[in-house]
Write a structure and sequence with these properties.
Its EC number is 5.6.2.4. The chain is an alpha/beta fold. The chain is built from 30 helices and 13 strands. It is globular and about 80 Å long. It binds adenosine-5'-triphosphate (ATP).
Length: 770
């Protein structure tokens, strides 16, 4: 079963539609008085800016008037905002009456609503998550006559909105593939009645392209029934947005269907480029842009280095406890939290672990039965269970006020995605926390996300997006500023709302430590008792040694020799420690050229300090910019892990070969890593190749075949026998095996089983790893 959580992005295409008879009043039968409003080819729309508007009841008159004002044969299209006669005071009355709010949440919200009700421009609105974007189109929808159409990406999201509107006694409907025939008929009857009771109609972008919707939209447009079109999550329009949906690209069609309606596009995450794309693709006219900064002042952001935490689960549990507060007399907690995991298994594991550690938690993912999902969501929403451990399929449309923390156990796929997911915290504007647990090998998670998208180029694009997240994690600057910069905004540092501002030294230390230890968790273990605040105790001079290579398999304590090395200030280790120390001390005082130089020095440190027993071949090689031995070691570990599984599975019935597993795997992993390194043109292509290779080996394992990496070793072995060479750092499996057990290895080579149990005879061919 797939771990990929995009199942919720169900294509809502026409093929899924239930049968429905043709609309009773197709476009051709449009009534005469609205004849001029048929979509007109090449007709220019004149948008007037005058503030005087006719009364609502005079809408038809206005239409006539605009006809009378026309020059030539073609009458100008009517202007919907002019047909409404909304007064400023109506807006405040509606805000209170329909939505129960005494005022607007922000000036942006207020100004955007006023533009749509009183002005005559389309609008692009960027408000942070929880900023109240829905109101920006829902309120005008209550003031405009007729119907407003809202495009929303998910049926689940639409259903949430419908429920919330229903609770406010506002009639909103949706036409989607999940409706029964009767439900669909009832909605269509109302929409084709000519005086629909429905005020807001929600549709998915896929639905917009169906003939049924096109016909309906034309029919309603011809009767002046559609005045407002809102596109929610508008960043999905742009390939540069983090959630690009190809069907959003076709929404330009709407402009042709309802040329005179006002368009409003809303999003919480859009760079300048995305904003431009949205305005262009949606053919928005004379667009007013309402942008707030993306910064949410009530959110505290920090990053924790998962690889160097002694007990990451407990760390998370302590964080959750601190955030959700006390159990109240009514049996619910003061606050709630979300832990985002990438894999379903992780959701389950974390939920069990947190519960065991005293934080009641439930998993939530697409693999659960619908009734379980509903129950879990209700338990969480109503406060019976304080923490939900979920994949990213959970959250869109979740509007729970007291979410006091959002923790990412796996990395989000982009910074824009992170902003949106973490933004589910503190929707009531109260202080809340957003924490990201970072692991240096995290990019490998990206491979799992890309399961269905095997093309190298796509992997590269995903990795590039993903790198925005790793850059965020590996920085020491203000987190808010870093995110804002990503969205093209120039903000001041927050000073108080992130670890970068409140505890920069600590962040730098943790990063240093992570850099030095690579993927070696065990080495930096700090006291278990105090592990939630582990780094308060952390002293780089004691714990900051580097250990790479086999990381996880190594003892927790540094060797005596290593301690001596640190204490006496000798050897490479001390050199690096001192370098880092110097760097930290000098950081604040450096001039720009000095900073540049320091950066270069820092870069150079990427290539030194590897352990003597590193399994990497040529670990100091600087050929690939920015790719040092630490990342290579982590990748080596990954290759080794999947080659090991492959070896074990393949030789399960050949004990004499199984006994050689360790040595063969190490040699194959070293050679394979070096081969990929040698072929890489950049750090990113190296990572992409590792990801691909891992995938390929796993597939081979599933097919009960021996990985190609081992077959190459066999070939080398044969070659080595014919022409033995002393190869410096390189040790072939053949060399190692023959030095340990010469005779048995010869036997093994002779009796090598076929490379595929399914297909015993596999022809030797040119081997290519990448
Ligand atoms: N003027 C207001 N006064 C008080 N509360 C408001 C106001 N406007 C919106 N809200 C509330 O703010 C919360 C968030 O609103 P909404 O769901 O529209 O946010 P959003 O910007 O669409 O968020 P997201 O990007 O996460 O979807 C809701 O609970 C809503 O009722």
């Amino acid at each position: 079963m797939s771990d990929f959580e995009d199942e919720d992005y169900v294509a809502d295409g026409e093929e899924n539609l239930l049968p429905w008879e043709d609309p009773p009043n197709p476009f051709d039968d449009s009534p005469d008085e609205c004849e001029e409003q048929k979509p007109q080819k090449k007709k220019k729309v004149q948008v007037k800016t005058t503030k005087s508007q006719p009364t609502k009841s005079k809408a038809a008159k206005t239409t006539k008037k605009s006809k009378a004002n026309t020059q030539g044969d073609e009458p100008p299209p009517p202007m919907p905002s002019k047909a409404t006669n909304i007064k400023e005071e109506d807006i405040y009355v509606a805000l209170k009456e329909h939505f129960g709010h005494p005022g607007f949440r922000s000036s942006i919200q207020e100004n955007a609503v006023k533009e749509l009700c009183l002005g005559d421009r389309d609008a692009f609105v960027l408000l942070p998550t929880g900023g109240g974007k829905s109101l920006i189109y829902q309120l005008p929808a209550m003031l405009y006559p007729g119907i407003s159409i809202v495009i929303s990406p998910l049926i689940a999201l639409i259903q949430d909105q419908l429920q919330s509107l229903l609770a406010k006694d506002i009639r909103a409907e949706s036409i989607n593939s999940k409706l029964s025939t009767e439900e669909r008929k009832a909605i269509m009857d109302d929409l084709y009645s000519g005086a629909p009771k429905t005020r807001i109609l929600y549709v998915t972008p896929e639905q917009v392209q169906t003939q049924r919707f096109i016909k309906l939209a034309r029919w309603m447009n011809a009767r002046c029934l559609i005045h407002l079109v809102a596109i929610d999550e508008a960043h999905c329009v742009s390939q540069w947005g983090h959630d690009f949906r190809p069907d959003y690209l076709k929404l330009g069609l709407l402009r042709e269907l309802v040329p005179n309606a006002r368009f409003v596009a809303c999003t919480a995450t859009a760079t300048k480029k995305v904003e431009e794309d949205v305005i262009r693709i949606l053919k928005m006219k004379n667009c007013a842009v309402f942008r707030t900064g993306i910064t949410r002042e009530n959110l505290y952001y920090d990053v924790k280095m998962k690889d160097i935490l002694p007990n990451p689960h407990r760390h998370l549990a302590n964080f959750a406890k601190e955030c959700i507060g006390k159990l109240q007399p009514n049996g619910s907690y003061e606050g709630a939290g979300i832990v985002y995991c990438f894999r379903r298994d992780d959701c389950e594991e974390i939920a069990v672990s947190l519960t065991r550690l005293g934080v009641e938690s439930e998993p939530y993912h697409a693999g659960l039965k619908p009734e379980t999902r509903t129950r879990v969501q209700e338990d969480w929403t109503e406060g019976r269970v304080p923490v939900i451990c979920a994949t990213i399929s959970f959250g869109m449309g979740v509007d729970k006020e007291n979410v006091r923390f959002v923790a990412h156990w796996s990395l989000p796929k982009s910074l824009a995605g992170y902003l949106q997911e973490s933004g589910r915290a503190g929707r009531d504007n109260k202080p809340s926390k957003c924490r990201l647990y970072y692991s240096q090998t995290a990019f490998l998670e990206e491979e799992r996300r890309g399961k269905r998208r095997t093309e190298q180029k796509k992997i590269m694009i995903q990795l590039r997006q993903f790198e925005s997240v790793t850059k965020y994690c590996e920085g020491t600057d203000c987190r808010h500023k870093t995110m804002a910069k990503f969205f093209g905004e120039n903000t001041d540092i927050c000073k108080t709302n992130c670890d970068g501002c409140t505890n920069k030294t600590q962040v730098a230390r943790e990063l240093d430590c992570m850099g030095k230890v690579g993927s070696c968790k065990t080495y930096t273990k700090i006291s278990e008792e105090d592990d939630n605040d582990a780094f308060a105790e952390y002293n780089p001079d004691i714990y900051g040694g580097r250990r790479g290579g086999y990381g996880f398999e190594r003892p927790d304590e540094p060797s005596e020799a290593f301690k001596d090395e640190v204490e006496n200030g000798t050897g490479t280790t001390s050199l690096i420690l001192n370098e880092f120390k110097k760097r930290r001390a000098a950081q604040a005082k450096l001039s720009i050229p000095e900073q540049k130089k320091a950066k270069e020095d820092e870069k150079a440190l990427l290539y030194v300090g590897f352990p003597d027993d590193t399994p990497l071949i040529d670990p100091a090689n600087q050929r690939v910019n920015g790719l040092g031995w630490r990342v290579r070691s982590a990748c080596y570990d990954t290759l080794k892990e999947c080659l090991e599984t492959n070896h074990v599975n393949f030789y399960i019935e050949t004990p004499e070969k199984a006994a050689l597993c360790d040595i063969e795997v190490r040699v194959a992993a070293s050679n394979l890593e070096k081969f990929i390194f040698d072929s890489a043109r950049s750090k990113i292509s190296y990572k992409a190749a590792i990801v691909n290779k891992r995938k390929e080996i796993m597939l081979t394992t599933e097919n009960f075949e021996l990985a190609e990496a081992f077959r190459l070793e066999q070939k080398k072995e044969v070659k080595a026998k014919a022409c033995p060479v002393a190869s410096g750092m390189f040790q072939s499996a053949a060399n190692l095996i023959s030095s340990s057990d010469d005779e048995s290895s010869k036997e093994d080579i002779k009796d090598q089983p076929s490379t595929s149990k399914a297909a015993p005879l596999v022809k030797a061919r040119t081997l290519s790893f990448v």
